[in-house]
Design goal:
With about 110 residues, this protein is mainly alpha-helical. It is about 30% helix and about 0% strand. It has helices at about 20-25, 45-55, 75, 80-95.
Length: about 110
């Protein structure tokens, strides 16, 4: 397949399975974490594109620890405006000097 589709030579798919009962037991509206309903995480840009193409009409979102760096804040932290607002308030309170700003930072706080 790699000879047919050379772009696959630099892509990979990683599937991880973890017990999700405790994560899903928390009310999604009670925290800023946006992915409580997810059962699968997809890594790698091309694999992500292929997965999403077959999963329409799902909105794209990425778990921040496995993001590629080209995602929007909404894709990382949730499309509900209150989630990002809550994270910005927390960021402003606990990191006013922007010390934690390197990988997928909360910006505009």
């Amino acid at each position: 397949m790699i000879t047919t589709i050379p772009a696959l030579a630099t892509s990979f798919v990683q599937f991880e399975a973890f017990p999700m009962q405790a994560v899903k037991a928390v009310d999604p509206a009670s925290t800023a974490y946006a992915h409580r309903e997810d059962d699968i995480l997809v890594y790698g840009r091309k694999a992500r594109e292929l997965f999403l193409e077959g999963a329409r009409p799902m909105r794209f979102h990425a778990y921040s620890n496995y993001a590629n760096g080209d995602e929007t804040l909404e894709q990382l932290y949730g499309y509900e405006s209150w989630r990002l607002e809550k994270l910005r308030r927390l960021k402003s309170k606990w990191d006013p000097n922007g010390s934690f700003r390197f990988f997928n930072p909360i910006t505009d706080y």
